[in-house]
Every structure is written in C-alpha cells, then in structure tokens.
C-alpha cells in the first residue's frame, strides 16, 4: 500500500479549516514529516491560537507569517524555510489558503471583489510556487525515487469543483462568480505548472477537497476531518500519470 512519506511539508492558510486539519493530521502520522511549515497571515493574532497551541506540542512544526499576494512576505517566508531546512529541499507544497466573496448573484459582483479574490487565489499560489521552486527542485534531485510523487517533490493546489466549467458545482445555491473564476484560473495554473516543471520531476495537481464544513463554506457535506483523511490518502497514491490533472479528495478525476 502506498504511503505518504514527505520529509518536509509547507501548508498555506494553516490557522483554520482544511489547512489546520492538514497540520494536525500530518503531526499525528507515525511517519510524520521532519518539518511542517504552517503559514498564515497573522501568527500573533487570535485566529492563530489553535495553530500556536498545536505547534507548541509538536517539535518540527514552525509557524511562518505569509501574505501570499505580497512579494516581500513570500520572499521572507522562502528565506526562513530555506534557513530551517539547512541545505535540503522542500518535499511538498500545499497551496491551501483561499478566499471568497459571498456574492450570491452575478449582479452583486464588483471589480474590487473579483480582483481581490483572483489576487489571493491565483496570483498568490503562483508566487508561492515560484519562491519555493528552488527548494522543490532540490528535493526532487536529492530523492532516490524514480518518476513523480508527493513523497519526492510536489505542488498541490487546493481548488474547487465550483471552478469546473463542466460541473459548475452548486450553482443553484450560490453563484459566487469571483470564487468560481479564480478556481478555474487556478486549475489552468496547475496545468501550466505541470508542463513547466515536468523536467524537474515535480508533480503538480489541482485538488477539490469536497464540500467541506468550514468557516468559509458555512456548511458542507463532509467534515474537515473526513476530507483531510481522504486527501492525505490520495496524495500517497499520486504519480507521474496524475500530474497536471484535477482530482477530488478521493482521487477521482474531475472535468475542467
């Protein structure tokens, strides 16, 4: 049975929801990563307290401030992770942080909302991936594994079936065009990354976590625990045949 065996993992948006649960479940693994870098916008703020309590109990969990759409913040985070890794690479980058403006109908959309959501959900993951690319390349080169895997070097972009042009998941419930357009663009970014980083043997995947019960969704069909359990299992099975695809939490391929 395939096992996720990543030496180091970085998760953005780690102070709540799926990001926080990813950190929680990763530290609970018997073969847990040596380093888990948990990023959030304001590590000193009240919304990061649960993450801080978790980090205090587990060695190797480091909280790093990161505002993904700010180049200086991204650069500082990459420098800090590079220093902590002391010459080795970063195995797994999970671009999880994202936002939405709950505009239920198209008429409510504004240029400001569209721009803000696109900047966070698309430009942010692009900049973070670029900043950590040297560490991902190093991890890939250092790995004795053939092919591609999340235990070698990988970028996982947390997307949404709401961005599927074919499925338009839950359109009747909420149109949220700002979010849908940003996730469709994130899917294209993932496909481009898979082609651009193919020679580096870096696996790139877009992943729909399910309709998860989080602060952002305000409800859902899956608990965050169930979603993350399945996500980690799916990540353990991904290989070069999956790079550049769009899958759900169970590993099923979704239409763009």
Query: Count of helices?
Result: 6
Question: What's the N-to-C terminus distance?
Answer: 29 Å
- Please give the share of residues in helix: 25-40%
The shape is: globular
Quick one: biggest sheet?
7 strands, parallel
Radius of gyration: 17 Å
Question: Which structural class matches the secondary elements?
Answer: alpha/beta
Low-confidence parts:
none
Following the backbone from N to C, one meets helices and strands in this order, namely EHEHEHEHEHEHE
Total number of beta strands: 7
β-strand percent reads 5-15%
| Strand numbers in spatial order across the main sheet | 3-2-1-4-5-6-7
GO molecular function: oxidoreductase activity
Pfam families: adh_short (PF00106)
Protein name: C-factor-like
Organism: Podarcis lilfordi (Lilford's wall lizard)
Description of the molecule:
The protein is an alpha/beta fold and 256 residues long. It is 39% helix and 13% strand. The protein has a seven-stranded parallel sheet, sandwiched between helices. Strand 1, helix 1 and strand 2 form a beta-alpha-beta unit. This is C-factor-like. Pfam families: adh_short (PF00106). InterPro entries: Fungal_SecMetab_SDRs (IPR051468), NAD(P)-bd_dom_sf (IPR036291), SDR_fam (IPR002347).
Short recap of the structure:
The protein is 39% helix and 13% strand. The chain is of the alpha/beta class and 256 residues long. It has a 7-stranded parallel beta sheet with strand order 3-2-1-4-5-6-7, sandwiched between helices.
């Amino acid at each position: 049975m395939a096992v996720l065996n990543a030496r180091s993992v970085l998760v953005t948006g780690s102070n709540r929801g799926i990001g926080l649960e990813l950190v929680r479940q990763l530290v609970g693994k018997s073969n847990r990563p040596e380093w888990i870098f948990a990023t959030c916008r304001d590590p000193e703020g009240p919304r990061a307290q649960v993450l801080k309590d978790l980090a205090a109990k587990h060695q190797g969990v480091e909280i790093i401030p990161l505002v993904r759409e700010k180049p200086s913040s991204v650069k500082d985070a990459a420098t800090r992770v590079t220093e902590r890794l002391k010459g080795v690479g970063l195995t797994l980058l999970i671009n999880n942080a994202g936002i939405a403006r709950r505009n239920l109908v198209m008429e409510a959309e504004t240029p400001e909302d569209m721009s803000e959501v696109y900047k966070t959900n698309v430009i942010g993951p692009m900049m973070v991936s670029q900043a950590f690319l040297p560490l991902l390349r190093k991890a890939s080169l250092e790995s004795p594994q053939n092919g591609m895997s999340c235990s070698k070097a990988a970028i996982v972009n947390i997307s949404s079936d709401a961005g599927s042009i074919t499925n338009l998941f839950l359109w009747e419930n909420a149109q949220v065009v700002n979010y849908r357009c940003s996730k469709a663009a994130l899917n294209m970014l993932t496909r481009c990354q898979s082609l651009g980083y193919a020679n580096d043997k870096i696996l790139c995947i877009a992943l729909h976590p399910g309709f998860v019960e989080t602060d952002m969704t305000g409800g859902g069909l899956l608990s965050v625990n169930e979603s993350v359990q399945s996500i980690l299992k799916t990540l353990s099975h991904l290989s070069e045949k999956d790079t550049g695809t769009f899958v759900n939490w169970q590993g099923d391929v979704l239409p763009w």
